[in-house]
Amino acid sequence: MLALSPIAVFLVVYVAASIIAGDFYKVPISVAFLLTSIYAIAITRGDSLRQRITLFSQGAGQPDILLMIWIFILAGAFAASAKTMGAIDATVQLSLQLLPDNLLLAGLFLSACFISLSIGTSVGTVVALVPIAAGIADATTASVPMVVGVVVGGAFFGDNLSFISDTTIMATRTQGCRMSDKFRVNSRIVTPAAILVLLLYIVMGTRMHSPQVTEAVDVMKVLPYVVVLVTAIAGLDVMLVLVTGLLLSGIIGIAYGSYDLFGWFGAMGEGILGMGELIIVTMLAGGLMALIRHGGGLAFIIRLLTRRVHSSRGAELTIGSLVMLTNFCTANNTVAILTVGPIAREIAERFGVDPRKSASLLDTFSCLAQAIIPYGAQLLMAASLAALSPVEIIPYLYYPFCMGLFAIAAILFRRPKL
C-alpha cells in the first residue's frame, strides 16, 4: 500500500497548494510532480539513495517517454511556426465560413472522431485539431477549455476503436480474439455514447455566436493544416506528419513574407520552449511511475481486486477496474493493457467472459483512464497547445465520461448479447 501513496500525495499537494493560492489552476502541475517525486524517492525501500535516483531516472528516460518528448518538441515547433505565418487564423476563418454556428462543436467532434479512427492515435488528433479548436473558441463566445475538451473526447473515440490503434492491437492479442470481432462488440458499447454526445453538442451549439467572416481566406495559409490532416489520415507516422507540416509552414511563411529564415527559426524556438513544462512533467511522471511499479504498487492493486471475484459480472468489473488503476499508475493506456492483459484473460476464462467482451472492456476503460488523468500525454499536449491547465479541460470531457457510463451499463445489464 505504501507504494501507491505517491499518487495520494500528488493529489493532496496539488489540491492543497491550489486552495492556498486561491486559484485551482495557478499552481503549476510540474511543482506538484516534483514534490511528489521527491517523496517517492524518499520512501522507496530496499535500495540506496543512488539506486533509487537511478531507478527514477531510468523511468524518466524510458523509450516511450523519450518518443513522446520528441513528438512534443516537433508539435511545439510546428504549432508556433504555423501560428506565426497565419495558418491558424486562416483555418479558423475557413471553418467559420463553412459551418453554421450551431454545428461548430458537432463538426469539431465528428472531425476528431474521424481522424482518430483513421490514424489510430489520440495524440496525433490532438496535435492536428487543438490549435484550430482554440482559435475557434477565441473567435466565438465558447469557452476554450470546453472546445478543447470536444477535440480530446473525439480523439479517444478512434483511439478506442481504430484497427491500427496500439490499444486495439494489444487488447485483442492479449485476449485471443480477432480485431474485427472486438470492433463489432466495442462499437455497440460506445457508439450510443458518441451519438448522445454529438446531439448534446448540436444543442449546445445553438448558444454559440461567431463573427461574420466576409474577407477572402488565403487558402495557401490553410495548406499546412490540410497536409497534416491528410498525411495523418493516410497513416504516416506522427513525427513525419509534424516534420512535413513544419517544413511547409516555413516555406509558405517565408514566401508570403510572414517571416524570414531566422524569423522562422525564432518561431520554432519559441514553440519548443513553450513545451518545457510539458516535457518536464512527462519525465517526472515516468520516473514516479517506475518507482511505484518497483515498490509493488501494481501488484498490490491486482491482489486487492481479484480476491473477491465470484461471477462473470464481477469479473468484467474487475477487468475494467484493473486496467483503469494500472493506467493511473503508468499514464499509458497501451502499457496498462499489456500489464493487465494476461491477468484479464485468466479472469475471463475462469468466469466465462467472452474474449471479445474482455478485449473491449480493456480498451474502453484504459481509454477512459487515459483521457481523464491530468498527467497523460493527451491532456498535457492539449493544455500546452491551448495555453491551459490540464485540469481545466477535464470537466468538459463529455464523451470519455459518457463512454465510461455506457461501458459500466454494458457490464451491469449484460450487453451486448454475444
Summary keywords:
mainly alpha; single chain; 418 residues; 21 helices; 78% helix
What does it look like?
The protein is an all-alpha fold and 418 residues long. It is built from 21 helices and no strands. The chain has helices at 5-21, 29-43, 49-60, 63-84, 87-98, 104-119, 122-139, 144-161, 166-175, 179-205, 219-233, 238-255, 261-274, 276-294, 297-306, 312-330, 333-351, 355-372, 377-386, 390-393, 398-412. It is globular, with a radius of gyration of 22 Å. The mean pLDDT is 83.
Report a brief summary of the structure:
The protein has 21 helices and no strands.
| Number of strand elements | 0
What's the pLDDT, averaged over the residues? 83
Overall outline: globular
The proportion of residues forming helix, as a percent range, comes to over 70%
Q: How many H/I helices? A: 21
Residue fraction in strands: under 5%
Low-pLDDT runs of 5+ residues are none
Please tell me how large the radius of gyration is: 22 Å
Q: What separation lies between the terminal Cα atoms?
A: 38 Å
Structural class: mainly alpha
Topology as H/E string?
HHHHHHHHHHHHHHHHHHHHH
What kind of sheet is the major sheet? none
